[in-house]
Amino acid sequence: MTKVLIAIADGTEELEAVCIIDVLRRAGIEVTVASCMPTDSLLITASRGVKIQADCHIKACMNQSYKLIVLPGGIPGAKHLYECQPLTDILEKQINNKQWHAAICASPAVVLAQHGWLKGVKATCYPSFQDKLTGAQVDKTAAVVIDQDNKLITSQGPGTALAFALALVEVLLGKEKAQSVAQPMVTHAA
């Protein structure tokens, strides 16, 4: 089964996190939602006050292998993800092994760019953060940017979360599977 890690923290954008979790699970993907809070708490308070219960703490994911690692955005959620050393270690290994990783909203700028992982990579993010995509080939208009060579998928924000999540399914399981997930959801992507 395809395994995906989704990292969350206090201040994560809940619309993005829940949309991604939901769509990937509809596709039959094994999703692990991991808290990146230093307190080891599994219950996070998202950016609009919604409580989300993680499956485990990020430390439990250290020796696991994932087909894809996803970073929802939100502030200060993205900042917490950036500051989480276990997540940084997992992401570094994923990127060095040329495996899929994805980020939406503030996370491409706050997490990936600040770690120096976007040099020469095609990416986008939340419009007000696009100037912080240091070293990236920034696409300011695309809702979702897929850099096949660098195994990176990025997106702009809450309004693009569904398209982003369906792009994740397509990259992992193919266009036909993404369409079969999109159709009963009554999206225009079907």
From TrEMBL:
Domain of life according to the entry: Bacteria
Segments forming domain DJ-1/PfpI: 3-170
Alphabetical list of CDD domains matching this protein: GATase1_DJ-1 (cd03135)
InterPro entries in alphabetical order: Class_I_gatase-like, DJ-1, DJ-1/PfpI, Prot/Nucl_acid_deglycase
Cross-referenced Pfam families: DJ-1_PfpI
UniProt xrefs under NCBIfam families: not_thiJ
The protein, known as: DJ-1/PfpI family protein
